[in-house]
Input
Amino acid sequence: MAAAKLGGVRYARNPGAKLLFVINSLAGGGAERVFSVLVDRMAARLGPDALEVVLLDAEARRYKLPEAVSVACLDARGAMSASMLGLAKMVAAKRPKLIVSFLTRANCAAIAAGRLSSVPCVISERVHTTRHFAAEGAISAGRMAVRLLYPRANAIIAVSEGVQGDLLERYGVARHKVSTIHNPVDGDAIRRLGSLAPDISTPHDYVVAVGRLTANKNFSLLIEAFARAKLAGSLVILGEGPERDRLAALADQMGLAGRFMLPGYLNNPYPIVARAKAFISSSNAEGFPNALIEAMSLGVPVIATDCESGPAEILGREGDATVTQVSDAAWGWLTPPNGLHEMTAAIRGLNDAEQCARYATLGRKRADHFSVDASIDQYQAIFDAHAPA
Output
């Protein structure tokens, strides 16, 4: 395939591309996984020549895309200005039918590029925007960029009702532009992967958590609650990130030496999750926690903090009020964010074998509601509504 160069950026030229899919990178994370699934399914439906992928940053890829799909890399190195400039030049040259983007920086760059070249743009918001900025310590310029640009998107796909509500209430987005599409989960594939032998040795008896080791995931709450609960067995947290050393030190301080594991990132975490006594999410904020549904699809009972978006939609909290104590929701346990006493009580509740078995069975049935085909059908309907004929 011929290559072209714009502004020092080299990329593959695909004159037949109709949809341009944009994301920061495929370095890892739930959003990147969903993006790769979406590209794969859309390429299968429309043909690989009907779309092209743009990665803003040159990072190692943890998720594969179909080999026949053209992939461009702008090497913006995390910078908003370079992302906007590089993408604007590419869109002006390629004139795609529609731009589809994931994640905040890619969304802002896509909207700007689309407006400059009169190309419609559909963005997908994967995080609770306000909580995300607060957790990352972002300056007000980030919020201002979202307020300025998001209302100018042709359509916005929110990953949960909580994410949608945040956009409507705080960022000036028109109600008719926003739709909620939950993340797709391929339960059959996850169960096949979960049946494989684990990549690492694990304790005989343990609970598990999965996610980047960042402050927003609040694994420190989980470590302290697990230690206080005095539950038999070990705590395993899968993931990598800047909080690794602090979390390891906290576990030692809480007396968990020999009962705590931080194995890092695993290409296939599902055998570890499948063999766990329970899966626990202690996050202060989520967009839509795929890992929670994946654990449920494996028949593992779950505990989750009732943060502003995601867990309650999955687990079936009754009413609109955030929980203030341990709540037996329809498909798992919910606890209040930062609720050490309540998280401790929920972990102690794992000693109730009958309730654990009940949630394991119900959770698997619930996870089957989030099928890949249903999600992709919803995405395609929105793309078709906004891509010119």
Remarks:
- The chain has two domains: 3-184+371-386, 187-367.
- Residues 1-16 have pLDDT under 50 and may be disordered.
